[in-house]
Recover the amino acids of this structure.
């Protein structure tokens, strides 16, 4: 298996809007050409949302999440769903 040319750390910083122009261009070069990078980015996006809902982001990450990541209506919808789902699970009876 080939080594991923873009680290998860860079992808997370990209999603949070915390990358240089050079890093952004590098990641987007792979993102638009390699479907696996797109899939990884989508999975990390979901993980970021889950981490935010659980309160697992660092303070700087949380601020960037709120300032940058949530600029997208689609991401706000995903966050609303994750919050609702988490609330539902916390109220669901255990079997």
């Amino acid at each position: 298996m080939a080594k991923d040319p873009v680290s998860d750390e860079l992808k997370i910083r990209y999603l949070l809007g915390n990358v240089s122009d050079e890093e952004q261009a590098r990641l987007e070069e792979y993102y638009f050409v390699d479907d696996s990078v797109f899939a990884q980015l989508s999975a990390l996006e979901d993980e970021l949302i889950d981490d935010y809902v659980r309160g697992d982001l660092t303070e700087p990450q949380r601020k960037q999440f709120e300032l940058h990541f949530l600029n997208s209506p689609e991401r706000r919808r995903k966050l609303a769903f994750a919050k609702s789902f988490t609330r539902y699970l916390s109220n669901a009876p255990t079997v």
In short: DSSP finds five helices and no strands in the chain. The mean pLDDT is 90. The first helix runs from residue 8 to 15. The two ends are 41 Å apart (CA to CA).
